[in-house]
Specification:
Oligomer: single chain
Bound molecules: S-adenosylmethionine
Radius of gyration: 19 Å
CATH architecture: 3-Layer(aba) Sandwich
CATH superfamily: Vaccinia Virus protein VP39
Distance between the termini: 35 Å
Length: 264
């Protein structure tokens, strides 16, 4: 879970092929339920990535509805368009959405709020583009203290790479306080209507693959010498022992949080 999303087309394809099925797809039905997405509605998927939420919303709204997806990263948008050419895909910033006021019945945002430099501004934009009475639904992840797998994992990385690693690996877990999250929606102009915490899971073929994905493919790799890297993998194997099966595959719990509100 790296903190930047400056991805190439190849990386965007890898995101769609590997990370969407491994982590992101599982949250979509819950997000659609909180948003009240149903037949005939107009829906926007903000920070849509390769479009997993928009695609599912499009199945639900059917031919009488309308779905748009917007993302800052052109490669993500290109892959989204390759997957489903018929939807309205746009390159754009969550802080300045390319839609008029009240264009949608629901705006959704999955696994992205923690990347936005100004989450409050993004929430205001998500509220602006829905009609009064429309819904805004967001999904992020619980804080590290509430993550039975990633909590001990990040502690292990910090032991080997220093405390700066906590900030680098912390992005995904930085917006998990449900009370703050509800307040954000409230201040943006949407009355909070529901929230939920859901324990899902993420799998890696091995501890080495987990360490490679989460550390080896990030700027942290430059801070850990080869010996420390080996020691880190050993430490991670110990702290995550409960989540490693006989074949060596890792299946860790991941806690997601959902908050939805209705535009006043
Ligand atoms: C972890 S991905 C989630 C993508 C998608 N929602 C999903 O569930 O698969 C985070 C996405 O946020 C996008 N993003 C980051 N900052 C953004 C911004 N300011 N405006 C729009 N999209 C942004 C990234 O380009 C990336 O596609």
């Amino acid at each position: 879970m790296t903190e930047t999303f400056d991805l190439s087309l190849e990386q965007a394809h890898a995101y769609e092929d590997l990370f969407v099925p491994a982590l992101f797809a599982q949250w979509v039905p819950t997000l659609l339920r909180h948003a009240g997405v149903g037949p005939g509605l107009r829906v926007v998927d903000v920070a849509c990535g390769t479009g997993v939420v928009a695609r599912a919303a499009s199945e639900v709204v059917g031919p009488g509805g309308q779905v748009s997806g917007v993302d800052l990263n052109p490669a993500m948008v290109q892959v989204a368009r390759e997957c489903v050419p018929g939807l309205d895909w746009r390159v754009g910033d969550a802080g300045d959405l390319p839609y008029g006021d009240a264009s949608f019945d629901a705006s959704l945002c999955q696994s992205a709020l923690f990347f936005f430099p100004d989450p409050a501004a993004a929430c205001r934009e998500m509220v602006r583009v829905v009609r009064p009475g429309g819904t805004v639904a967001l999904q992020t992840y619980a804080e590290l203290a509430d993550q039975p797998g990633y909590g001990p994992f990040v502690d292990a990385v910090v032991r080997h790479a220093g405390d700066g690693a906590r900030r680098l690996l912390g992005t995904y877990w930085s917006r998990g306080d449900v009370a703050q999250f509800r307040a954000l929606l409230d201040e943006a102009g949407a009355e909070p209507t529901s929230s939920e915490s859901v324990l899902g899971e993420v799998s890696f073929p091995s501890v080495e693959a987990l360490v490679q994905t989460e550390v080896g493919a990030t700027p942290l790799a430059d801070r850990i010498d080869p010996a420390a890297y080996v020691a880190l993998a050993r430490d991670v194997r110990d702290v995550l022992a409960d989540f490693v099966d006989e074949q060596g595959a890792v299946t860790m719990p991941v806690r997601a949080v959902f908050v939805a509100g209705r535009k006043r």
